[in-house]
Amino acid sequence: MNWQGVFPAVTTKFGADDQLDFELFDKNLQFQLEAGVDGIILGGTLGEASVLSLEEKGALVKFTVEKVAGRVPVVLNIAEGATRDAIQLAKLAEEWGAAGLMMLPPMRYKADDFETVEYFKAVANSTTLPIMIYNNPVDYKIEVTLDMFAALAECENIQAVKESTRDLTNVTRMRNRFGDRFKIMCGVDTIAMEQLVMGADGWVAGLVCAFPEETVAIYKLVKAGRYEEALSIYRWFMPLLELDIHPKLVQYIKLAESRVDLGSEAVRPPRLVLSGAERERILALIDGAIAIRPTLPDYKAIVL
């Protein structure tokens, strides 16, 4: 697994009957691949993992693996409450054809540092799949500290971190302590360019679901040292990127997908489609950004 580049945390598409909409999902997936993304992450926060059945997760992984056809790795998120359930899902992910796992700490129970480390180790030791730890204490209330990463370093297949603490200095702290032992993936859209400049290896992105070309362009331009060009796009992008740090990020990003014909607004309850003044406000923001969408340089020609 090469934890590097842009990995979209893709949304899960639903039809009017609340069933998985594979046709619409594939349309978005192919657009992501054409834009030049480097991996696909299924069943994350944006993927509405908490309301997907095990059967639906399996169907999504198998469908994506088939459609991607080896062009990029397919990663499944694990967000479980029980260690045995996480181990079972890791085993199934391998059987379904996933190339890697993204893992949150235990759900619902606020485990202490030792319990969290043991949880991650138990899953890591149960699978050969490479693992990226999702470190998001803001939303999930458990921080994976540097000392905890030191304890996890013995598990060779724990290879990366989705850095979502919103503390920019964590990129430097990780590098100072561990060198290149753990790959670092930006996990918060609104500080992604800053993290990349500080040495992060990639970007697990959210607004990429609607704007994959702009996202990949920023990544490649930064890594090529073309900071002014990247910054121009990033400044245009920022009002949209801020949709990623709201509790309704799923609804907001799905609305953006619908406006660029890469998805629909359909969500699974208890989430509800936006309505009224809130929908109009977010719609105005999205449409305003689309109206002044920047012309991109030939980022695909950049060889890193």
Automatic annotation (TrEMBL):
Q: Has the keyword Lyase been applied to this entry?
A: yes
Superkingdom, taxonomy of origin: Bacteria
The Gene Ontology terms for molecular function here are: 4-hydroxy-tetrahydrodipicolinate synthase activity; 5-dehydro-4-deoxyglucarate dehydratase activity; N-acetylneuraminate lyase activity
Q: What class of enzyme is it?
A: lyase
**What Enzyme Commission number(s) appear in the record?**
4.1.3.3, 4.2.1.41, 4.3.3.7
Keywords (alphabetical) are:
Lyase
User: Lyase: present as a keyword of the record?
Assistant: yes
What InterPro entries is this protein classified in? Aldolase_TIM (IPR013785), DapA-like (IPR002220)
Q: Report the family membership.
A: Belongs to the DapA family.
**Name of this protein:** Dihydrodipicolinate synthase family protein
Taxonomic placement: Bacteria, Pseudomonadati, Bacteroidota, Cytophagia, Cytophagales
